[in-house]
Fold:
Amino acid sequence: MSFEYPENLKYMDSHEYVRLEGDVATIGISAFAIDQLGDIVFIELPEVGDELSQGETMGNIESVKAVEDIYAPINGTVLECNTDIADSPEELAADPYGSGWLLKMKVSVSETIDQAMTASEYQAKVEG
Amino acid sequence: MADSLKPTPLLVQHQQLKARMMGFGGWNMPVQYEGITVEHQSVRQKVGMFDISHMGKFLLQGDHLRQQLQPLVPSDLSQLEPGQAKYSVFLNEQAGIIDDLIFYFEGFTASGAEIGKLIVNASTTAKDKAWLLEHVSAEAIGFEDVSDALVLIAVQGPDAIATLQRFTPTELTTIRNYRHQSGTILAQPAWFARTGYTGEDGFEVMVDPETGKKLWQTLLDAGVTPCGLGARDTLRLEAAMALYGQDINDTTTPYEAGLGWLVNLDQGEFIGQDTLKKQKEEGPPRKLVGLEMQGRHIARHDYPILVNDQAVGIVTSGSFSPTLGKAIALAYVPTAYAKSGTEIMVLIRNKPQQATVAKKPFYRRPKP
Structure:
């Protein structure tokens, strides 16, 4: 099976991706990780306004057979959560990098994402 | 590691279908092909098939076979007719369940010896064999372990029998529920058992490995959905069927596990009888109940059950039910909280979530 790894995103060890545009970070889960989980049945997201530290657990994704935590890849404040995808978790696999975005965070423009990988680094890591 | 896992004779078939594999009970087994939900729904709506060749299979033959096995099970085997099967358990002295199993009574040889089969769980095959042979002589029951030698395919769903019938002259509809018969499929010897682990109608078919490969391919070509252990688990959970090692184990008695219906205290002496007699009088301290989660959080194995903030029980199995569209679970709770409708909490990732004790099974197939 081949997965997408959009070039313009950063990827975390724990499979979150980040699209950083100015002071807004859009965060989701990679296509690879969603496939590993199987049929997604529930997505738990943080609250708008939550202040998160890098590495902090901010929610989880539940499939029929497993549940995985989602971690904040960057320090910031939750701006918006994708309630559409939370209501239809089965749609997540269809477009993980587009309509399957999970949340947006307001970050300081000087924020960098430690331990983030490029698309090719992440692909090499997960596909072995 | 995949190297130390045993392949079933159908491994190449699973690999060709790009199945996701995992180790289970020492075997390399398919977990899913297209996806658990799709496979689950195929079985509920049409027909799906499972490679269950990993199950333990013991062939037995001997004088008074049923009488010889009787002390090991709390169920009455003496009333079985040839062609009938019985779901029961091996018990230890404390009436804890060593394994759940099905005994298939086949009939008599010309000289009057009894023939039968025992199908047991993959994860407990060695344990069951040791227990059995500790109490009965292998010779006296003509014991033959064919676990690794034969293929077992479960074909389950509303269209299962019609689909299988296309490939066998054996009149499958004349084999009633919990009965079995030898016959042929694809012109090769086969054994058909109308038993299953999904809550749907169907058969479990035992054949030699070469026929097994042909049968799997034939059924695939006929449009049967290949299903893995993932869907097997969600299906059996909806049907509230116990999974050994999760819902029942050496410390759970049949009365606690809701299996009192298979116990016959008067059928003669059997291991664990004294404990069961006492438990029958006093009532079991805990019971395995069904739970329906109120929210979308899924209760899973080992999550604590809370009543008034106290941990009083434990979830043994839990998942999302594709048929009901909600999270369901099996759990042991103190008998005082076992009545259906009782509201309890399940601790899920440190937050208590509401659940209600539900009647079992969660799903019952529609009457034809």
